[in-house]
Amino acid sequence: MSYYFSKTLDVGFDQAVERVTEALKEQGFGIVSTIDVQDTLKRKLDVAFRPYRILGACNPTLAFEALSAEDKVGTMLPCNVVVQAWGDRSTEVAAIDPMASMQAIANPMLEATARNVRARLQKVVESL
């Protein structure tokens, strides 16, 4: 089982980030954290790296469901979505498959929530 869903877009990096943010919003997710990996690696290690951003996406209702079923599931939240440039007009978007990560937790009450999150994230990636 793969641990992510991905799609390569024929658009620039910034446009891809905008598209992903809007698609997540349409599925009830907001961005609660953003990690600019390119900037961080430049500042911390003084190395050049391609544009690479990790978007921490959260659907509050589904996060509450998951946390109510398993209080330590917060170690796996938010749902990460990666946007990375592979050229001027080639950008890959990858989202975590929560069903894969939830296999590590022996709590059947999480399965329905994980399936719901998975379906929504798949719609996000497919809609791009």
What spatial form do the alpha-carbon principal axes imply? globular
Rg over C-alpha atoms, rounded to the nearest angstrom: 15 Å
Q: Strand sequence of the main sheet, in spatial order?
A: 1-5-4-3-2
Question: Helix amount, in percent?
Answer: 40-55%
Distance between the termini: 22 Å
The topology string of helices and strands comes to EHEHEHEEHH
Proportion of beta-strand residues? 25-35%
Q: Kindly state the mean pLDDT as a whole number?
A: 95
Please count the helical segments.
Answer: 5
Low-confidence stretches: none
Q: Determine the oligomeric state from the structure.
A: single chain
- Given the helix and strand composition, which structural class is it? alpha+beta
Describe this structure in a few short sentences:
The protein has 128 residues and is an alpha+beta fold. It has 5 helices and 5 strands.
Give a written overview of the molecule.
The chain has 128 residues and is an alpha+beta fold. It has helices at residues 13-26, 37-45, 60-69, 98-102, 111-127; strands spanning 4-9, 30-36, 52-58, 79-85, 91-96. It has a five-stranded antiparallel sheet with strand order 1-5-4-3-2. The longest helix is centred in the C-terminal third of the chain and has 17 residues, at 111-127. It is globular. The two termini are 22 Å apart. The mean pLDDT is 95.
